[in-house]
What does this fold into?
Amino acid sequence: VVLALGAESIDVVIDNVGGPSFPGMLKVLRRGGRYVSSGAIGGPLVTLDLRTFYLKDLRLIGCTAWDEPVFPNLVGYIERGEIRPLIAKTFPLERIADAQREFLQKHHVGNFVLIPPPAGH
It folds into this structure.
């Protein structure tokens, strides 16, 4: 993660993976950054060096449920360019099995996006 994004290059990390990537996620956060966890598909136990946490003035936030306006607000932030999703790779929808296999290898940083065929195809 640090090699892909650079140390202290991000203000907010939204992570639903957890696991071994957790320390790297904290390293990419700038001073005063926020780490939001909404899942742990990579593993629920992580290693935390408390010095990273307090010396960088980080906030750790857990999120289990969304209030109704969260998703529309998130879409608005993306549309206005206020936040950018990190896309690791795109796949045509008919290659969903390939996307799943690559996802399970857990060697990517960012999201996989499935592209549906044009309407009428």
Summary: Residues 78 and 84 are 6 Å apart (CA to CA). The two ends are 37 Å apart (CA to CA). The first strand starts at residue 10 and ends at 15.
